[in-house]
Amino acid sequence: MDYFDLHCDTATECWKRGCGLRENGLHVSLERAGKYGRWAQVFAVWIPEGVRGGEAYRYFCGAAAFFAREMEKNRGQIAFCRTGRDLREAVRAPGKAALLSIEGGAALDGKLEHLRDAYRLGVRMMTLTWNGRCELGDGCMVPDARGLTPFGFEAVREMERLGMVVDVSHLSEKGFWDVARVATRPFVASHSDSRAVRGHPRNLTDDQFRELVCVGGLAGINLHRDFLRGDGASLDDALGHVAHFLELGGRKTIAVGADFDGGILPKGVRGVQDMDRFYALIRDSFGAETADDIFWRNALNFFSRLSPAA
User: Fold this and answer.
1) Handedness of CA 264, 121, 132, 167 (dihedral sign)
2) How far apart are CA 66 and CA 96, in angstroms?
3) For 140, how many CA atoms within 13 A lie in the half-sphere containing its CB?
4) Is the dihedral of CA 249, 137, 167, 280 positive or negative?
5) Quick one: pLDDT band at residue 310, thresholds 50, 70, 90?
6) Hey, how many other C-beta atoms are within 10 angstroms of the C-beta on 155?
């Protein structure tokens, strides 16, 4: 099988722990992902809630520099992709592709020049907020959350100009609809499940998911157990989120955003090496064509359209 994952925190964890991407004790390693025919992974630099201002920007730069070193060290195994063309070539040979994202717009320290710096360092997608508040807007866990700030609107416009994908996972509902109102390109929820299936504020409402379908975006199924069902969650619960999104017309919208090294995994999943079990569940329930769309084609088609900065 082929496997494209929209979100993991593994690179950030490797940087903090002083281990490498090739072989480690985390959820994702290049060696364990080698079992798949073709594999593409979006690696996120996650900005913790208590890191803000200039410290957040320096934190991002440190993690991004580490990631670049790891990509160079492992260039025979995986290709660091910055354009759709890079991605298409990478999954032909050597068959493994990496993209870089930011999880939490606090990394910008409220400056558009830092967004442009991030683009130059290879970032091609950014989650506008994490759970709390930052210069771009409010996250989904902020009481009485508001939407985007004026800087948040500026950042969305600049991201679209650069060719950086806007990611609305973690963003407040008001922020989501602010993005939907002003975006001129498709946007994604890289690692978000269905709120109708599991009533958690981190999950997408049906209207939000329908909007992603309408604009040609993506929603990555998140395997963090709290968003699936809670304690005791299994891959069957993840399948329930897939089933609901399919009922909403999302066959070309659903992808995978497992949230490896950023969440607590459900029963039956130890890490990237076990994702063939999830693929098999989807295939057996909805057919191989749908499973291939969700695990590979939808995300590949979306990110293959990445273009260089204007």
Assistant:
1) negative
2) 19
3) 19
4) negative
5) low
6) 26
What are the two backbone dihedrals, phi and then psi, of residue 201, each rounded to the nearest 5 degrees?
-60, -15
* Helical segments of 45-167, H only: 54-73, 84-90, 112-120, 150-162
pLDDT tens track for 169-184: 999 999 999 999 999 9
Query: What average pLDDT does the segment 247-259 reach?
Result: 98
Report d(CA 72, CA 19) in Å as an integer: 15
- pLDDT band (50, 70, 90) for residue 25: very high
CB 215 within 8 A of CB 187: yes
User: What are the contacts of 268-272 at 24+ separation with CB within 8 A?
Assistant: 268/234, 268/235, 269/223, 269/235, 270/27, 271/26, 271/27, 271/28, 271/29, 271/32, 272/5, 272/27, 272/28, 272/29, 272/32, 272/33
Q: In this structure, are residues 51 and 267 in contact, taking their beta carbons and an 8 Å threshold?
A: no
Q: Facing residues of 103 across strands?
A: 46, 127
Counting Cα atoms < 13 Å in the Cβ hemisphere of 202 gives: 23
Q: What gap in Å lies between CA 112 and CA 108, rounded to an integer? A: 7
Whether the CB-CB separation of 60 and 45 falls below 8 Å is answered with yes
Integer CA distances (angstroms), 130 to 21, 86, 97, 113, 127, in order: 24, 28, 25, 21, 7
> What are the tokens at 286?
């909805």
Residue 93's pLDDT band, with cuts at 50, 70 and 90, is: confident
DSSP 181-250: HH-SS--EETT--BTTTS--TTSBPHHHHHHHHHHT-EEEEP--HHHHTSTT-BHHHHHHHHHHHHHTT-
- Distance, first Cα to last Cα, the chain: 35
